[in-house]
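Below is how a single chain appears once it has passed through the pipeline. First comes the sequence as given, then the structure the pipeline wrote out for it. We keep one example in the README because the format questions we get most often are answered faster by looking than by reading.
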Amino acid sequence: MDYHELLKSLAEPGEGKIVLLVSDGIGGLPLQPGGLTELETAKTPNLDALAKIGVQGLSTPILPGITPGSGPGHLGLFGYDPLKFIIGRGALEAAGIGFAMSDKDVAIRCNFCTTDAAGNITDRRAGRIPSDESAAVVQKLKAIKIPGVEIFVEPVKEHRFVVVFRGEGLGDAVADTDPQRTGVPVLKPVPHEGCAASKKTADIAGEFHAQAVKILANEPKANNHTMRGFAKKPHMPSYEDLYGLKAACIAVYPMYKGLASFAGMTLAGEPKTLTEEIDVLEKEWKNYDFFFVHWKYTDSRGEDGDFDAKVKMIEELDAVIPRIAKLNPACLIVTGDHSTPAKMASHSFHPVPTLFVSDLARTDEQEHYGEKYAVYGGLGQFQAQYIMSLALAHAGRLGKFGA
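Resulting structure:
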């Protein structure tokens, strides 16, 4: 019996509701040895109040030392083995904007970027071009035509957009074209060795990029683009099948909506801010058993390398905690999908501080929520994949195994 079969056999109906509050990239590092992380620096009286009545620990998104992308990081939080259920970023972005993928499709998450006269990248995100400006540029790319394949180009948010190639015999084993640094040109799409179907996709992607560069030549910011996460449509069991939970996703960014939709969650509301996300949570409280609430900007500010701005985003999260607590969930989990230390300006391999609040929690002695407290917390260190079994148990929704 594997993990999912076990949970499916033990899941029990109940009234207790579960809230998984994900502060993307919340884990951090001190700027100087012996200093405080972003989370430890932030003034978080409400999260600290929860720490006093809850139990915390450190969750490892994938395996020790492995730095996760956002997709695998969230899959682990949702209880799916991220080494078994692999979903490409392109499929996540496509699903997040409501694009219905077919089995003939390969979806690609693209970023507008800025390049200089020599073709070298000067800004990997085109100055985080506003969504309305980006959408207008995306519209121009819809003119691209390539024989033998149907092409869909759709805006996502800010500098992000989605390209979907639809045709026969397309593979998704194609390397990203984002070199992950400035001062160098956009890479060419290269298929993984020995995959003829993916070579076809790579050739199409190369032609798409060549046409796009001509169209974008006079754009002041978005004069080029990179391609990431070539992906076919995934197939995976739903939350209701696995856990017996009617689940809702409350998120702003399309990628996280896409991931949630593949897990069978309903996309609730159309929030634009954290305050609006909590408005949706309150409005939909009676309609679902499980709520995934996603806060993006702790990750964004970490990726920007802005320690102080990330601290402020954590404090914004803290400010809405009383509204969530007032709903009295049977189990409230506060965590992140990975760490994004401003010191590194990127995702990292570090475990994530994870807090459980429940009447069934075995409270530990920690009175603050943060990395140096979580390391001594009652949950210890564990793989994020087991957050869902812990959530079900703390909500009184998991039965006994064996006689």
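Residues 92-231 form one domain.

See the next section for the split statistics.
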